[in-house]
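Something for you to look into today, if you have time. Just paste the record in under my message, thanks.
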Amino acid sequence: MFNLVLLAAKPPDWTHERFITWWRTDHAELTYRLPGLRSWRHTEVEAALEPRSEGWDGVSILGFDTEEDLRKALASPEWAEAVAQVGDMRGRRIAVLGTEREMFAG
């Protein structure tokens, strides 16, 4: 699995609850449409482990079969629509790409 991992923080004038609801409803409707999307996990950040980790609201992991599939999704009209919806909401994000390896399955 090749993943796009997004760590995001809400816009300064939104509540955490509003941001999570938007991410899991309105924004999710666009995310579901991404071509080649095989899986999507979303974690609502409820607490930071330590002070240097504070200030984040959620994590999304979007899974694709290959890097090529992910790159096609990022070049798609569906991705452009999702980016346009985000617009200038002024939240923060970290976005990274990489190959997933399962390290433990209980």
